[in-house]
Design a protein that fits this description.
heterodimer; A: mainly alpha; two-stranded antiparallel ribbon; B: 425 residues; mainly alpha; two-stranded antiparallel sheet; 17 helices; 73% helix; 2% strand
């Protein structure tokens, strides 16, 4: 019984990281039909944001608050990845709506650039750049809109961007002078140390639960609840769903579809950033960290059925539990006197990478019977 | 008409003579290192041809060609390892000793035969591609879902090959330079030269084969699948069968490319199956021009040469350049370079140039006329040569106009077809 419970916990833990990473993708892919291969790199940006925030909180002035840096990192990672995502949507992806294969290739190019960017640009300057972008995009929303109409509009726009650039330079200079480790470009992997309260495990009913895993599970639950509330209950969520169902009709009814696109993409990318916080708590962070998640994320979305949040949740937990079941060879410990050919087969797959092989093979077999995933979209569209 | 055809034929003959001469003479001109690189890139061009066939002509974007590439490479490397293992303990390749394996795994045995290997190099990847593709196409999974599934399959194979030390030496791969073929070391200059020639000939043969395939009725069906699959199905064809066949063919080509690449690069390793490698293969085709066979070959060779040159000079910047190239090609040049040349690209440019020349010519004529009018009103201006200047300007203007007009006539108007507007799901 205890064994079963432990296995279930491990599976849920693996699945929740996967779900966290796949949630943003499910929104972007499921609602917009956009394949974003740079999603993994947005996760990486979130992880690096956590790293920078952690270093900032190590400064003497902020040392007393060090324990709650994760709470600051989560919204910051959301904003950083979200802004990069919005920039991506505005510059590249919006030109390619309707041609998913081209989007796939272009976003792969973006992911290459982001990887090399992280390698060859010092974190401090990157932080400054992102602050400048956030403020440049954000100021027109914050300032009274009257300022941006009329003759002086262009001047004020220019002024707001200049101010943003100034802010960015200040941040970059400040960070670079205060924190040595991010003043130079560094291609090596970095480690995020969890705060004191997050280390170790929680003893309960004779089992230990690692606290970072628990934190990630809580984060995931909150994210899923938040996203489903947003999509199903809020006004903008309703607009997003409307645009998903029928873009031209929504346009006719006065829904600003371009704004909806930006919003959807920004939220999806932002969730990738939050996933990055979770990822950084689990292991070291490097420029390639995104690549190891991206295929798994796509598998979750395909298995769950496109455009369905519950499918995504179920699929990621199913994959998590299966991975743990196969990868740790649990079947063997549940059923020790298994016939020997079967036992050797189970042992053959009892490593993390071989478990992935097995799980993907199972997914492909599953898709043979349910080509549209667990919860296919119902509709009367002629399936071409 | 007849004359121009003859001229074109002469041009073609000249081109072919040039190509053959270049291939024959390349070992004499290029240093050994560059020749080896060229040979490798030509074998990559074979893979690119396969991708062009399935993506450019059939519209199936596979991100998993690395699987078939690696399988071909492993088949060749296994034969080379086995044929040189006679003197070693247990009569099996050396690396098995590291993992305490005493007996050859069963699937190695057939690769002792050169004939089996020669067939296996293309048959195994081809059949595997056919089976995998058939399973996917049967369910009418297509578009991006197909791409994602091929990528997942790639990851599966990568993990498998990477993890199995005892079967195929895991992440280290199989090395070939120290093995012997025809009593020569595979890594020797002589063998490398021959491999280069073989590769070049194979590229040309496969190009000819694919040209024949895509220009026939089979090719028409492929293009129909790309452009409007439901209509093809309603017309009574079975797209699944064609897609499976063509995906198998592309897999077989990737296998051949992989085998030739392996003997020239010196190892077959799971790195062939890394995700970036397979996407790179797609981008060679995209840059060269999908739907044009020459584009695939040129794209593979030129981009790889650019990559090796840039990586030698500025190792940091290649990823930036490559990423930028992806974005640029997809957004600005969707037909690729060759496609752009064949399509309206140069015509458009000439057209625009002609328009500019015309405008400039008209301006000059107007100015010249104005000057002459002034000089008739004020005769003393003639002494300053204004009249001559005006005449000269008018002459220039007419000349420019005629050049511009000729250019504009040279570009025939293209039939504008409304592209099918895809609706967001």
């Amino acid at each position: 019984m205890q064994l079963l419970f432990e296995s279930l916990f491990n599976g849920v833990a693996i699945g929740s990281v996967l779900l966290m990473a796949a949630l943003g993708l499910a929104i972007v892919f499921g609602l917009m039909g956009v394949i974003n291969l740079a999603h993994g790199e947005l996760i990486m940006l979130g992880a690096y944001t956590t790293y920078v925030v952690q270093l900032i909180f190590k400064l003497p002035a902020l040392q007393p608050l060090y324990n709650c840096y994760v709470l600051v990192a989560i919204p910051l990672a959301f904003v950083v990845s979200g802004v990069v995502g919005i920039l991506l949507e505005r510059t590249v992806i919006r030109r390619l709506y309707g041609s998913p294969l081209e989007t796939l290739l272009a976003t792969w190019g973006v992911s290459l650039i982001l990887q090399q960017f992280v390698r060859s640009v010092p974190m401090a300057y990157a932080a400054g750049l992102i602050l400048a972008l956030v403020s440049g995009f954000g100021l027109p929303l914050l300032l009274p809109s009257g300022w941006f109409a009329g003759a002086r509009a262009r001047l004020i726009r220019l002024g707001s961007w200049a101010f943003s650039a100034f802010l960015g330079v200040c941040l970059a200079g400040g960070l670079a002078s205060q924190i040595d480790r991010i003043a130079r470009a560094d291609a090596r992997n970095v480690d995020v140390t969890a705060p004191q309260w997050m280390r170790g495990g929680l003893e309960m009913a004779g089992m230990t639960f690692p606290v970072p895993r628990l934190v990630i599970i809580v984060m995931t639950v909150m994210a899923v609840v938040g996203v489903s509330w947003f999509l199903n209950r809020s006004v903008w969520g309703m607009r997003i769903r409307a645009v998903t169902q029928n873009r031209s009709m929504s346009d006719c009814l006065g829904i600003p579809t371009e704004t909806v696109d930006v919003l959807t993409f920004g939220i999806g990318s932002g969730l990738a950033g939050v996933a990055g916080v979770a990822v950084s708590l689990l292991g070291s962070v490097g420029p390639n960290v995104g690549g190891s998640y991206i295929v798994g994320c796509f598998m979750v979305v395909v298995l769950g059925g496109v455009g369905n949040l519950y499918g995504t949740v179920l699929a990621s937990f199913a994959i998590g539990v299966l991975t743990d079941l196969i990868g740790a060879g649990r079947l063997l410990s549940v059923w020790p006197d298994m016939p020997s050919p079967l036992a050797s087969a189970v042992e053959f797959f009892a490593t993390t990478s071989m478990a992935q092989v097995m799980v993907f093979a199972l997914i492909v077999v599953f898709l043979q019977f349910r080509p549209a995933g667990l919860f296919p979209q119902k509709g009367r569209m002629v399936e071409a | 008409m007849f004359q121009s055809l003859q001229q074109r034929r002469w041009l073609l003959v000249c081109l072919w003579v040039l190509i053959v001469a270049a291939i024959v003479a390349a070992p004499a001109i290029l240093p050994v290192f560059r020749l080896n690189l060229l040979g490798r890139f030509l074998s990559l061009a074979i893979v690119a041809l396969g991708i062009d066939l399935i993506w450019g002509f059939t519209g199936l974007l596979s991100l998993g060609q690395g699987i078939f590439f690696a399988l071909g490479g492993y088949a060749a490397a296994m034969y080379l390892q086995l044929s040189n293992a006679g003197d070693l303990p247990n009569g099996i390749p050396e690396f098995f000793g590291l993992y305490g394996v005493k007996e050859l795994p069963f699937f190695w045995h057939p690769f002792a035969s050169p004939w089996f290997t020669l067939v296996a190099i293309w048959l195994i990847p081809g059949v595997l591609a056919g089976v995998l593709g058939g399973l996917v196409f049967r369910n009418r999974i297509k578009g991006v879902y197909f791409s994602i599934l091929t990528q997942a399959a790639l990851l599966v194979f990568y993990n498998f090959f990477n993890g199995q030390q005892k079967l195929i030496n895991g992440t280290n791969g199989l090395q070939t330079p120290a093995t012997k073929l025809f009593d020569q070391y595979v890594g020797s200059d002589l063998m490398q030269r021959w491999f280069f020639w073989v590769t070049a000939v194979v590229v040309i043969l496969i190009w000819a084969l694919l040209r024949w395939v895509v220009r026939g009725r089979f090719g028409d069906v492929l293009i129909a699948i790309r452009d409007d699959e439901p209509r093809l199905r309603f017309a009574g064809y079975n797209p699944t069968l064609f897609k499976t066949l063509v995906f198998g063919l592309a897999g077989a080509l990737a296998g051949i490319g992989g085998a030739l690449y392996t003997v020239q690069s010196g190892s077959a390793s799971p790195q062939f199956m890394e995700v970036p490698m397979s996407i790179d293969m797609v981008i060679w085709v995209a840059v060269g021009g999908r739907g044009t066979l020459v584009g695939a070959i040129l794209g593979a060779v030129v981009i790889n040469f650019a990559k090796s040159l840039v990586s030698e000079a500025l190792p940091e910047s290649w990823l930036f350049i490559q990423g930028g190239l992806f974005i640029l090609v997809v957004t600005a040049l969707p037909e690729g370079v060759i496609g752009w040349f064949r399509g309206e690209g140069p015509g458009n440019w000439l057209n625009r140039l002609g328009y500019c020349l015309n405008t400039l010519g008209n301006w000059l004529i107007r100015w010249g006329n104005a000057l002459i009018r002034q000089s008739t009103a004020f005769p003393w201006l003639n002494y300053l040569g204004i009249n001559t200047l005006g005449n000269w300007l008018i002459g220039c203007g007419h000349a420019l106009n005629s050049v511009g007009i000729v250019r504009r006539i040279g570009t025939y108007p293209r039939l504008e077809l409304e592209g099918q507007v895809e609706v967001q799901p």
